[in-house]
Amino acid sequence: MTTALRVWLFSLIALRAFGADSGGWQAGVARTAITPAAPLWMTGYAVRDHPAEGRAQELWVKALALQDAAGHRAIVITADLCGVTRAISERVAAELRRKYSIPRSAVLVNASHTHCSPSIDGYLSGLRDYSDADRAAIAAYTLKVSDQMVATATAAIAAAQPAQLTASRDRATFAMNRRNNSEKEAPARIAAGKLAGPVDYDVPVLAVRDHTGKLLAVLVSYACHNTTLSFYQWHGDYAGCALQDLEERHAGALALFAQGCAGNINPFPRGSTTFAEQHGRDLADAVDRALVAPGDTVSGSFASVLSDVPLEFAQRPSDEEIRAAAASTKPAASRQMDQAWSKIMAAEAAQGGIALTYSYPVQAWRLGNLTWVALGGEAVVDYALRLKGELGKNLWVLAYSNDVMAYIPSEAVLKEGGYEGKTSMIPYGRPSAWAPGLEEKIVAQVRSSVSELAVRR
Ligand SMILES: [Zn+2]
Question: 252 CA to middle of ligand 1, Å?
Fold first, then answer.
């Protein structure tokens, strides 16, 4: 293509964007590096036996601030963290409410679930029992990160300018159901086109452009554990690589990643930076294809609702079970989790009893003609597939949002048990598996929230 033709084509595209109705949206973005300076413990894997050794990639908190024509604000905060707690998201939202009167429901905090990120106070508390000094360092980091989330959101609000929002989607296929395929048999199954189990290859993309058509920000989601890597270096994993690629390809634009319903989904293959970069490139390529697709212009107003669904645990562990876990003779990583879990349970029992219900957050957003659902916890992919089946394939279904308190199995996965259905409750420091019936409760809340948004002005 000649330069003249390229310039002419670009002008046409810019003109089209400029001429299009922005729908009165304003948008601003900002980011803050959150890579710890000191060698903190990492979280996600029980087998790690010492703190991080260094930084292979910067970890980020990023914020996208949106405002509709009527002045309703929405804040998306994404973080290169394994999980966020209710304490963090409430603290951040309370501060944004105080400064800007933004309702709690209009603040969405999502963790990318990278396992090469720092331990967070109150998250995966049964993974290992930290020393008092480590515990204090983790608590201080957690507080600092929540302050950085507020500061980043504040900067994004300050940077707001007229913007056009476009929603589109494409596909990436490195996600694999990890309950239904072993890594050993995966290559043969992939070659035969016979990977088993539910998976969601969708890559939903929200493009934010300024009045000249220049890309300001791109928010992307994918439902896949951010676990290509397991070394002792800070790293955003495949999501971090995808965002780095996108920011290099679109100079001046900020790329954000929100984790989807990835509870039972792993990337394949795993185990090296090369694979993380390869998956990152695949995801960035999908985003770039989505960016040149016509897409749907997001028009209309913003509305949000955040509800707590009371979920029950199946049973209270007996005092005998709690004592037995303290005296666990399992191999090192399992023993360390048993002991940490036992300590948590004993402390809860001593302080007013072990709580057998949990307030599970379900958030729903209407961004004009676009609907988002943001679930708490490590929701399995079955939720995304079911909700999109019932409410329309253009629905965005995020998980790992606002509070990552445990895995959230579907009814089928709960019944099967295994890691996502049962045993992960030990590292999460929860009393037992969830009681049956959680899927219907969660889906019912999503349905009712989405209907409520449809009539909201
Ligand atoms: Zn996980």
Answer: 32
**pLDDT value, residue 73:** 98
Distance 68 CA to ligand 1 centre (A): 34
pLDDT of residue 23: 85
- The C-alpha atoms of residue 55 and residue 231 are separated, in whole angstroms, by 11
Distance from Cα 378 to the centre of ligand 1, integer Å: 6
- Kindly give the distance from the C-alpha atom of residue 160 to the centroid of ligand 1, in angstroms, as a whole number: 34
Rounded to two decimals, what is the model's pTM?
Answer: 0.95
51 CA → ligand 1 middle, Å: 19
Cβ atoms of 292 and 410 closer than 8 Å: no
Mean pLDDT by 10 residues, the chain (457 residues): 48 43 89 95 96 97 98 98 98 98 98 98 96 97 98 98 98 98 96 96 98 97 98 98 98 98 98 98 98 95 98 98 96 95 98 97 96 98 98 95 98 98 98 98 98 89
Cα-to-centroid distance, 119 and ligand 1 (Å) = 14
Q: How far apart are CA 324 and CA 43, in angstroms?
A: 25
Distance 124 CA to ligand 1 centre (A): 10
Residues 6+ apart with CB under 8 A from 400: 83, 84, 110, 111, 112, 113, 259, 262, 376, 377, 378, 379
According to the model, what pLDDT value does residue 21 have? 55
Between CA 441 and CA 36 the distance in angstroms is: 38
CA distance 18 to 69: 17
Do 83 and 226 touch, CB atoms closer than 8 A? Answer: no
**Residues 6+ away with beta carbon under 8 Å from 240:** 57, 59, 60, 80, 112, 114, 257, 276, 280
Amino acid letter, 65: A
Q: Judge contact between 145 and 166, C-beta under 8 A.
A: no
Residues facing 108 on adjacent strands: 76
Task: Kindly give the distance from the C-alpha atom of residue 64 to the centroid of ligand 1, in angstroms, as a whole number.
Answer: 25
Q: Which of 20, 18, 59 is nearest to 42 (CA)?
A: 59
Is residue 360 within 8 Å of residue 311, measured between CB atoms? yes
* Ligand 1 centroid – CA 178 distance (Å): 11
Q: Report CA(115)–ligand 1 centroid distance (Å).
A: 8
Compute, in angstroms, the gap from residue 450 CA to the centroid of ligand 1. 27
